[in-house]
Amino acid sequence: MKKKRWLYGGIVLVVAVLAGVAVYQGGVAEMDAVKVTRAAVARTVDDTAVVQAVNESLLYAQQSGTVAAVEVELGQEVKAGQALIRLDNPDLNIQASQTESQMNQTRAGLDSASAALNRTRLQLDDARKNLERVNSLLQSGAASQSEYEQALTAVQLLESTEKELTSSQQAAQAQLKNLESTLGEVQGKKAQLIVTAATSGKILSIDVKKGAAIMPGQLLSSIGSSQHLELKAHILSDDLAEIAVGQAVDITAPVLGTKVLKGQITQIYPKAEEKQSALGVIQRRVPVMISMEETGTLQPGFEVRIAIQTRQEPDALVVPRQSVRTVS
To answer: Would you say residue 215 has pLDDT above 70?
Structure first.
């Protein structure tokens, strides 16, 4: 009995202490009973994505030069093959002019060599016929050995000349062929100074101005359709294990207000890329493409928030978030 009284007394003391603490901290809070319900719950991977045109075509400079003219405006509809930007490269013009001049000189030399070769061949034909005639006369005693040797020497000299002229003609033909190839390359480069639309669509960006110096590989413009948009996100490689093609995506943005657009993952790139976060941290991220059922007021280049639904519980037990208390 004595031990029980001590036990009861200890319990009363602990309760009294806890009550005192509660009073000291502001009194005992009243607790309301909350009914547990069932609802669909989804686990998501949250990140950002950028809106871009489906099948967007980026146009890069293939030659160096300066922008001579920009022949389109932002938002303009263009057709495949239409000239958009014209560049000027004086070096290519000089190279083309010099090559054409060399070609004219080579053609003149080739024509001269060909004419000389034709004359030599005619002379050689006559000389061979004369040699045969003198040889016949020599056999009959009507011509001397000296006359035969002179006729033979004439044939040999003309044969040597024909060989030299044939070699010169072939060299001129080869040189002309090389110059034609060089001119073709230069003309091809000059043609690349006129930047044309690879596909039909709308001008989404113009990244140069008239007079700007351009280097090969520099972005000049982009073409696409503002009516057919998609999203490109770069997801942390650590989160990729939960992501798969076909998963649903919720899309939000300030420009959309309270509207939530629906999307779906269509492609996951096989290789991660190195990206730098806003805090300067180097991260490995994987590009992920997302299609959209509708685009709302989104335009190419807009940034949006995405929530990729990686797991869903259609009939989970849920309670209001405010009813959950963390006890430390």
So the answer is: yes
**Is 222 within 8 Å of 56 (Cβ atoms)?**
yes
**Contact (CB, 8 A) for 220 and 61:** yes
Given this model, what pLDDT does residue 15 score?
Answer: 41
Per-residue pLDDT tens for 116-137? 999 999 999 999 999 999 999 9
Q: Are residues 40 and 307 in contact, defined by beta-carbon separation less than 8 angstroms?
A: no
Give the count of beta carbons closer than 10 Å to the beta carbon of residue 275: 14
- CA 280 vs CA 90, 125, 232, 233, 283: distances in Å: 43, 87, 21, 18, 9
* Residue 200, amino acid: S
Separation CA 98–CA 153 (nearest Å):
44
What number of other Cβ atoms are within 10 A of residue 244's Cβ? 11
Rounded to whole angstroms, the Cα distance separating 208 from 126 reads: 71
Kindly list the distances between the CA atom of residue 32 and the CA atoms of 29, 39, 128, 257, 313, in Å, as whole numbers in the listed order.
Answer: 10, 21, 128, 35, 27
Termini Cα distance of the chain: 37
Torsion-angle region of residue 274: left (phi > 0), alpha (psi -120 to 50) or beta? beta
Residue 129: CB partners within 8 Å, gap ≥ 6?
Answer: none
Query: Is 80 in contact with 201 (CB distance < 8 Å)?
Result: no
Tokens representing 222?
């982009």
Q: Token digits for 252?
A: 């939000």
Angle of helix 145-191 relative to helix 90-140, nearest 10 degrees?
Answer: 160
